[in-house]
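Contributing new records

If you add data, match the layout below exactly. Sequence lines come first and carry their own label; structure lines follow with theirs. Keep one chain per record. Anything else will be rejected by the validation script.
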Amino acid sequence: MGNTPPEVSIAVAGNRTFFWEKTPVAYQVEVHDPEDGSLAEGSIKPDEVNVFLAYSAGGDNLSPILTAQQHEIQHPGKQLIDGSDCKSCHLPDQPSIGPSYKEVAQRYKNDPGAVDRLAEKVIKGGSGVWKKEFVMVSHPQLSTKAATQMVNYILSLSGDDQKPEKIEVKGSLSLTKPDAAVTNGFYRISASYQDKGGKNVKPLSQTAVVTLKTPLIQAESYDQVNRMKVFGEIEDGDNRYAGNMRPGSSALFKAIDLTDVGAITYQYATTVAGVSIEARLDSLRGPLVSVAEVSSAPEATTWQKATAPVKETKGMHDLYLIVRCKNRDEKDILRLDWLYFDHRSNSASMK
């Protein structure tokens, strides 16, 4: 007789994409196993299910469980590292020719001057800090800004914000953002159960994951785009923006849960009058859930904010942002920096 794998799921009340500070997140883990029974019936005990909560300051490959539920925005420093020769001498969490990124992060995590010194060393190279025989090769092609982003990413891997906290199988979480400067942080709730197996039958395990991220999305993190481009280099990080837009330009953000979202706030810049941003569901001609009318300014570098209510919407959707202009002949009509999804309790939403 064989063994059937258990089924594990995590039910979250409300939004399954974002978390908002001061807004509790109610959750409940559900486990069912054909041989062992279920958590709800009591035949599987709560202490037999491992449930953890972990925070990460950005998408990384050192987190204990990576989710396929949503794509995670990578730190610009990680993108630069992945495109360089760093992996020839360094590994994320174990020694190689040189120290691991985690070892570097642990050594310098409380050193306020480490970022500037290490960025300079990435560019100029050096030796003698970790091993006498290890020589850090120079990277003169890197700008100071790029090297600094790489170092910032490495120092974020000290592990201080990634230690999972064991939590109950059912409860309410008050989630806060540890670092106000981080815009792409996320919490991960994971639940796993290993069944009891049987005589001559190995036990089987299953894990479920829910990822909740901050409700601010950088405009340049779109999944698909039409008639707009990103301005700025990877090392510019959150200072990049989407621009060069024309009437009809659009951006797609996949798998956004609009449950409990009452409004969207945009940070934008434009010198053109009569510009608006539509938000539609699942296609360019899908249901219209929000329209933001934006005001022009004399200078194209003047960043402003506009908030538009969102019709009450449930569940996960692909979100299309479409730029409109009363004068269809206008060009370069909008620059978009970020969008923030306001919780319904904090906004005047559309009916």
